[in-house]
Amino acid sequence: MSIQRHGRNPGTPGTGLDRASQIVVHNGTAYFVVTGNRPFGGTAAEQAQQCLAKADERLASLGIDKSRLLTVQIWLSDIRFFQEVNAVYDPWLDQANLPSRCCAAVELAHPDLKVEIIITAAV
Question: How many angstroms separate the CA atoms of 83 and 92, rounded?
């Protein structure tokens, strides 16, 4: 089965090397990760809104929408952001087609990054 890779995320500045594909599609399933806009700032809710806007763009680039979500993983830099992010996330969802979901606090790669979202969707 073929693997399609869309877009590239840069690696360490000055190396000329990229680190990841923005979207990977295999066997009718799309995989991608979104974060807020650089430079990272604002509240966890604002970063979550930016993540979800990017998710909508990536889904649209594949010709699908959030009704095709399978799994959403939300990583928070602090579990105290849980309700703040849910206040943005819950109304964003297609309530007729809810994905499975987990949310956890982890140490994220940048000190100002509060939210990172991993999405799996059916193409």
Answer: 14
Spatial neighbors of 7 by CB under 8 A, at least 6 apart, are 21, 22, 23
Closest CA relative to residue 61, chosen from 18, 32, 93:
32
Angle of the 44-61 helix axis to the 82-92 helix axis, nearest 10: 30
Tens-digit pLDDT profile for residues 82-119 = 999 999 999 999 999 999 999 999 999 999 999 999 99
Please state the φ and ψ torsions of residue 97, each to the nearest 5 degrees.
-140, 65
- Cα 77 to chain center, whole Å? 14
CATH topology of domain 31-118: 60s Ribosomal Protein L30; Chain: A; (3.30.1330)
Q: Which two tokens stand for residue 46?
A: 């604002």
Q: What is the pLDDT of residue 21?
A: 96
Contact between 94 and 66 (Cβ < 8 Å) = yes
- What backbone phi and psi angles, to 5 degrees, belong to 21? -80, 150
Q: Would you kindly state where each structural domain of the chain is located, as residue ranges?
A: 31-118
